[in-house]
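hey so i finaly got around to running the thing on Transmembrane protein from Massilia horti. pasting the sequence first so u can double check i didnt mess up the copy paste, my clipboard has been acting weird all day
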Amino acid sequence: MDWVVYWLTSASGLALIGAAIVVPFVIWRIMLGPIFTVVGIKPLAFAYLCAACGLVAMSFVSSYAEFSGRETDGILQEAQRWSIVPHWTFHLTILSLIHVLPLLGLVGVPVAASFLKRGRLTLKNIVACALVLWLVLTILGWAFPGNEWHSTHRLESFLTGLKDLLPLIFFIAMPFMLAIYGCSPPDRLRPL
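ok and heres what it spat out for the 3d tokens, dont ask me to read them lol
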């Protein structure tokens, strides 16, 4: 996977990442239509910033936990922690962009824009969307097993998918939607 990180941090990879961020801003503008002049791009820009911070935090927590597990097993030494964990965090963050940017741009942006346009962006709808996304992604991963274990252990595979995708929802999807909610003009929001 080092070659993926290497390519994504090269000029062409950075251009692709930039396009994956710019295209959703165009989708945002088109979907909001006339209310774009009231809403602007501030909510979406802040949402991407919050999602990026969440992605780095999720990657750090995962890398730290992985290092701790390997230290417990005697594979790594405590003295190596702060030379390895930041490296793993960077790699995991870059690799996660492959999944995170398309999901935010093709799912999060249209859903948020349609709720905002209709004045239905509420905390209740944000939580409902997060739960639906969590279940849909889990079911998709469960429906197409990646290896023999997932094919033969269906319930465990489903539960593992739920457990593995929860940080994605908690650290990335929820901050993304909550940032849009928090930065949107109050007249475009409805109370609970």
